[in-house]
């Protein structure tokens, strides 16, 4: 019986490309998809291959690890879309998706250990990436466990499988989007530049400004409610120096909403800004003016991570290829940047 | 080896109460918890009982069914909290949580069938309840499959296991909360009274008004973007008839935000309203004025559903007790109702 590796070889592509082509990923060209489909027909390949492994030692289950802190999850509505993307691909390949959760790091680690010992689960997807993560350290200590990270890994990036957006490019595109409207001052609003996502978008912002010889104008805000007056002062200072329409790239939709509130507090018309956020969440749609936001396609982050975890299942030594996948982004324009 | 049924019998409670007591549910009194703990000690009961079943025909996995329509999931940030609650209890009982998802109803049903056939999964939790659901019909056709619904079942309510908030009481409490502030006109904003949740909250609203002899003032809105002017007309009409502060019970936070926007369109000061939503989502926290909202504890909806699905596992005939659990709600007051 043909495996996905056989199909990949005949089509002249990598196993992960073959898998992506099979589930119609937007990352794969139609030409490549045709090649893979033809190889599938020639080899009489059935995508239900994974069912073959049911009797094996290795379980046909992918473990999905949610971050331990409850707030971290509640504040990120796109986790559920990531899980949907994961489940969709896994279900289609007869793989189960099993969720590991915990209210504390200790509880989460204990639950993962149970999944490994009792469930024989050997493949995991982290739906988050954070610095100094004890959960990741625990997984790394298991020699036969393989994992895929959604987001940019903080350590061992070269040897880790991960799926991410190109946040540098996203920051660059967002800034250029505002500059192309003739805006002469663009602010970058953030809370913590030590966070990889915020930092990469910031670097992209700087690159876009450098191209047109404009100076940077970073605005560091706090999301602690008590910091509102301090935020307002920092915002006022920037607005006082500016003339004409000010562009603001906010590192996420939550922060973009905070900027709208700062406008009200500082008696700046919301329409004086050209404001843009990231994540294209429900917050962006319900804001007034509705918020232009960068869609990061969480569903595809999930499905690509699943494909990466599944596609090399047949490798004899069960090692995943060291690989990473970049999921595209897209600016969704709404009223907040209409000039 | 003692089972949870033995513990329950000795403590003089039902198996589901025993299970809830074990995982420290807020629904169980301290007195009952003490009784259960003592019975556990006397019988040397280990909560890892489920591991005993690993070798059995029945898998130690609970299937979690997400609604098929992607938008339905994306718009409900509390699904992830439900899953966390489910996973937390299941993990603690050595049960895996496996997610079923699909972009279409057909895909979802196919995936569930695979989980049943290949994964031997016999217990499912629906994280939603909707009228005429073909997925539920499919599950019902399997005689050995048992399921728990989160929400109020549209059919066979008497014989279905479900976990829900008391939405009548929640609507009543929300309305009374506004009336107790001396507000003489309270509006109920909704989109569709055929939906059980919206309807139950509406009935509670009517009951609270009836107690003080006030007339109802329902406001039917559409969430279709094109309906904004129509919404504004309906809202203006209600505001024109009113004098003094108007209370608004909006059937969820999204609709409460829509009311805030209608204020801006109709040139009504947002502070003229005492506005309240449901779900206590991120939208409530980021609104201005920040929105008073009824917390429905999605995490507990998940953990209670898991407890219900697990607790009767040892029943010989694998039938779940017909049971339902009511998760409490709580009004979280913010600026939108401060007078």
What does this protein structure show overall?
The structure is a homodimer of 339-residue chains. With 339 residues, the first copy, chain A, is an alpha/beta fold. Among the domains of chain A are: 1-45, Orthogonal Bundle (434 Repressor (Amino-terminal Domain)); 167-296 and 332-337, Rossmann fold, CATH 3.40.50.2300. Helix content of chain A is 43%, strand content 16%. Chain A has 13 helices and 12 strands. The first copy, chain A, has helices spanning 4-11, 15-22, 30-43, 70-74, 78-92, 105-119, 134-140, 167-179, 196-211, 228-241, 253-265, 282-286, 298-311, and strands spanning 61-65, 96-100, 123-126, 146-150, 161-165, 185-190, 218-220, 246-250, 273-278, 292-295, 324-327, 330-332. The first copy, chain A, has a 6-stranded parallel sheet with strand order 2-1-3-4-5-11, with helices on both faces. In chain A, strand 3, helix 7 (134-140) and strand 4 form a beta-alpha-beta unit. Chains A and B meet through helix 4, helix 5, strand 2, helix 6 and helix 11 of A and helix 4, helix 5, strand 2, helix 6 and helix 11 of B. Chains A, B: Keywords: DNA-binding, Transcription, Transcription regulation.
